[in-house]
Amino acid sequence: MYALLVLDIQVGLVHGPETPWRCDAMLDTVNGLMDQARRAGAGIFLARHIGPAGSPMAPDSPLTRLAPQLKLSGNEVVFEKQRPNAFAQTDLANSLRSVGATGVVIAGMKTQYCVDSTCRAARDLGFDAVLIADGHTCSDTAALQAKDIVAHHNATLHGPFCQVIKAEDWCF
């Protein structure tokens, strides 16, 4: 059984100064995945990346709130993380196991940081990992455009770290 893990779709990233590539399409994809997971009775976990108190990423900062575009039902598990890898220093692995999940479907932000780190860690912890090819994004960097970062990670992660599947081809 697979659970859905949505990473860091927060106000500060979605509405920040660096516009995420294909953000509206990614949000639609994630909302569709959440609907599908609900219908299948799969667990839905949403990570909020936070920083120290008093910083712009403090747990109570408006920037760390989940983006209002997410269509939440109230039955999701929302947890805080302080590292790119959503399993590091959190109870995520135990929480997934407690709902019977042997696999995790990963979507969210940012591709080259939290999405990458979490995909790599999931398999090391014994979970089958699926990355939704069109369900993650980032912003352009000085070195690469976001579309190239996403394409690179889809190609690099597929196989040794996870399956990479388009949302339309995934079913919980």
TrEMBL record:
Residues 3-146 form the Isochorismatase-like domain. Keywords: Hydrolase. The keyword Thylakoid does not apply. GO terms for molecular function: hydrolase activity. The keyword Hydrolase applies. Coiled coil: none annotated. This is Nicotinamidase-related amidase.
